[in-house]
Amino acid sequence: MKKPRGVADILPGETERWQYLERVIRELTRVYGYREIRTPIFEFTELFQRGVGEDTDIVMKEMYSFRDRRGRSLTLRPEGTAGVVRAFIENGLHKWPQPVKLYYVGPMFRYDRPQTGRYRQFHQFGAEVFGTAEPVADAEVICLLMDFYARVGLRGLQLEINSVGCMSCRQALVAALREYFRGKAGGLCSHCLERVERNPLRILDCKEEGCRELLKEAPVPLDFLCGGCRSHFAAVQKELAACGVSFLVNGRLVRGLDYYTGTAFEVLVPGIGAQSAIGGGGRYDKLVETCGGPPTPGVGFAVGLERTLLALAEQGVELPGAAAPEVFVAFAGERAAGRVPAILRRLRAAGIATERDYSGRGLKGQLKQANKRAARWVVIVGEEELDRGNVSVRAMETGEQVEVPEVALVSWLKERLGQ
């Protein structure tokens, strides 16, 4: 049996790197005041059709949808924000003190073409802020995103920002795009030919080479911003500058989801393949309302963890790996073997990472195992030492060995382990 295409096994040795990222996420979101939310792996398909947008590549081509035994259409979540919005509405979080600041970490699913750093099951870290339309919230989520990358050690990142406008000023942009692409129909892919009349904004996100070429002369959102959107975008830039965050305004930047309004942003890193974006997000002031909730502004981002790990590997950043056991308990003699379980329990209860032999090896073989596992200390339980109420403790780095009273073993080791 083999795993399906586009998924990955994350094995011991690699899982520790994931756990490190997750620790950084949890500590960083704590100091920023975000609280964790965990939503279902699958939702009713309609949520993503309404929330993400029926004309997006995600909904049209990439969702894993199926029918349950009652014939209802369900979909493995292709992104995190729509599910968080549904939970926000269904559980009455709009009644909480505003703004509500949430984050999530978990797997997403898209039937995409597998390539380096891009899988059909992938993992995202996302953050969402509900209940404020102020530019400072846009800047805060961007600062949180950039701080995450800085803490894990990524360098040379490029933050690009844009404004895709509100629903009002976007009408003029849609009209201009429709007129422009009607005259370029011969160069568009089949999907974008349909989008010309249905939703020309989605053409701006197309990855087909022919469409990308036509986009070079296409109208851009910045040229059609109303006064309110223009002021908001200027305030976001001012706030980012005050925070010391460098950015580049990219007037052609749009995100691959229909719910974005106003600010949009992406973080790019060179050297990880053709698609160099490793995270991004934006404002979605109409999404809660679209999904059946009260009018509630929102802004957030999502980070691809696989692509983050790939970028770290490309830059040669070493993340903490598997920790060696701090202590290995060995024994010599049948009576000594009977003491090992109690000693193990006491050490582990004290928070000391402890291992033992499971194969009936002699003392020499056990010491070899301790060395292979890179244990710092070996507790040797011998029958003569037991008669004196002691155990022997060997420092593996120096070979120095001393006897320690068994009742004082935990405190003796914790002192030397820096606990």
Give a brief outline of the structure.
It is built from 15 helices and 16 strands. It is of the alpha+beta class and 419 residues long.
- Going by helix content, strand content and strand pairing, the class is alpha+beta
Number of helices: 15
Instruction: Tell me the domain tally.
Output: 2
Residue ranges: pLDDT <50 for 5 or more in a row?
none
DSSP strand tally: 16
Strand content: 15-25%
Per CATH, the superfamily of the largest domain is Bira Bifunctional Protein, Domain 2
Shape: elongated
Radius of gyration, in Å, reads 28 Å
Share of helical residues: 25-40%
User: How would a textbook summarize the main sheet?
Assistant: 8 strands, mixed
CATH hierarchy class name of the largest domain: Alpha Beta
**CATH topology tier name of the largest domain:** BirA Bifunctional Protein, domain 2
Binding site for L-histidine: 79-81, 110, 124, 128, 255, 259-260
Family: Belongs to the class-II aminoacyl-tRNA synthetase family.
GO biological process, one term: histidyl-tRNA aminoacylation
Protein name: Histidine--tRNA ligase
